Amino acid sequence: MNAPATILPHSPLDRLTFGNSFAALPPSFYTRLMPTPLPAPYLVDTSAGAADLIGLDPAAFADDEFIQAFSGNRLLPGSQPLAAVYSGHQFGVWAGQLGDGRAILLGDVAGNDGGRLELQLKGSGMTPYSRMGDGRAVLRSSIREYLCSEAMAALGIPTSRALSVIGSNQLAMRETQETTAVVTRMAPSFVRFGSFEHWYYNNQHDALKTLADYVIAQSYPELLDSDNPYQALLAEVTRRTAHLMAQWQAVGFMHGVMNTDNMSILGLTLDYGPFGFMEAYDPRHICNHTDQQGRYSYQMQPQIGHWNCFALGQALLPLIGSVEATEEALKHYQAQYAAKLDDLLHAKLGLQTRQPDDDKLFDAMFGVMQASHVDFTLFFRSLGELRQDDPASDTVLRDLFIDRAGFDAWALQYRARLKAENSQDQARKLAMHATNPKYVLRNYLAQIAIEKAQNKDFSEVRKLLQILEKPFDEQAQHAQYAALPPDWAGALEVSCSS
Fold first, then answer.
1. Where along the chain do its domains lie?
2. Is residue 261 among the annotated active site residues?
3. Angle at CA of residue 308, ends 305 and 313, nearest 5°
4. pTM beyond 0.85, yes or no
């Protein structure tokens, strides 16, 4: 198949002036190659919020040059496309060399915040790292990643972003034949824990140092003056990862595949596959149908985050210089996670002060939630409506519980705790509604949008994005998107093919 042509000057995309910092690394870090053109591409949806991060006028979305550029059919001037190599532990087992098997990095462009953002086409064709894959992404998984990337950003959770989804009638085989698509992902860096593991396990310590120096210079320049910049790098990545795990837990988000090759060196949520948001609360819930052992269940995510940081520490050991210094960088993970989650839980319950028994209140809350398998998002959103002196106001909240007596007993404790800090109902409600989303990307909502898109109706993708961009707003006209999932949603399964 022919390589992409170059987009001509005076395109609406002229604003995107490419740099290629990753391409300046030695050739062993990547393979230069062109995206494989996507036959007869069509626009599925675009994110104005993501475009704004790189100063791209949404008017460019209507131009055919946009579709051609972000389907991989034409090369943007200055871009030096490449696929990066990395390795990793998958489901706790060393998998050896992996790499960008269906993603091609176009380069980096200036962001509105003064930094730079890399643009990557996911689903843009085979690379030397595709192993047995076809290099394509299907429309289903592309829409899921697109919507969840933007939804997580709106929730205030660190994440890669998604600029667009471009579809095609070209087919690829998954469980069945499905149409293909390309999603454009954006992040300051797509370097992973597994990028460091690759050089460590291949005993190439010079390359390991080159990568670490690059990451520090590009993303953590404040660490350059540290006594041991590599130890400082590990400590900062460990801190960010601990905080990210707490943020996931606080909104009920489950990643599904927390392999080290899917862990961002910047502490971003990366590589959306079989993710899910908790509905009927069960800490043992496994969102990934492929994960038969439950390694990546909801309750395991914080522990796996810690495990992955240890894997990164092992890879950085030759640079840090000693086991003791490496352990020093890792030792604060649990305290950082616990402190961040404690802050988030206090905010979710509208508590402005700390009391010695707050952990018992939280534990009791999760206990009654689990006993009745209460919808996670609805519970916390409804809790903001509770009034201290009017138990009769609990009707909607109470009706979420099978064990209403259990809820009543906990609500009594909660009310006493609110009174102990002279909480004011209206102010607390506003604060809680600003931290507890009304709208999250439930799998069944994504499925409805996907099925319509597969029939060339992209209106539900657009509508869902607009709702998810304002997850804390009431949006009374869209209240049905915050309702309990229908019965058929319980039969939905997502797997690594998602």
1. 5-190, 194-343, 351-433
2. yes
3. 125
4. yes
